[in-house]
Amino acid sequence: MKTTTFLAAFALVMLTCFSCGGKKSPATQQPPLQDSVAEGAALDAEEPDTTIYGTSGEDFGMSTFNMITDKGDTLYLCRTAEDGTDGQIYGDLKYGERYALTTRDHGQAVGVLINLTQLDKKLKDYTIKNGHIIVKGDTIDAKQLFR
Q: 83-111 pLDDT, tens per residue?
């Protein structure tokens, strides 16, 4: 009985140790992206814009999002951050559409994701800075636009 309990505990510890992280081998691992500024951050004029632009790829599902950036990089992101909060997604998720993105968790999770293809149908003269939609100097509530 003690041997069975010991083996079960050992197997559980080993499973926990080796299943966490899901790291790639050092040869294929890219350095993590710097976290982008997300909801609630001040829009300081001197603060650099960390928004990433690109087109959604084919490999996204219920809990992930895949995007090919305008620079040609392919991002595979979780929609839920390490702390359990979901990324803020405005608009539909469709293959081949354009998006603006900020990240969290060292570039591993979606911070704010805005469907630019849909936004272009609603607004014409706008800019995006750190996941915030700005029209004529005013920050627009994305929740109102994408109801």
A: 999 999 999 999 999 999 999 999 999 99
- Distance in angstroms (rounded) separating the CA atoms of residues 95 and 60: 9
How far apart are alpha carbons 114 and 111 in whole angstroms?
10
Euclidean distance between CA atoms 106 and 121, whole angstroms:
32
Instruction: Provide the 3-class DSSP secondary structure of residue 141.
Output: coil
By the 8 A CB rule, do 136 and 125 touch? yes
pTM of the model: 0.70
- Candidates 130, 124, 8; CA nearest to 145 is 124
Does 21 score more than 60 pLDDT? Answer: no
Q: CA torsion angle for 38, 40, 43, 44 (degrees, to 10)?
A: -100
Amino acid at 36: S
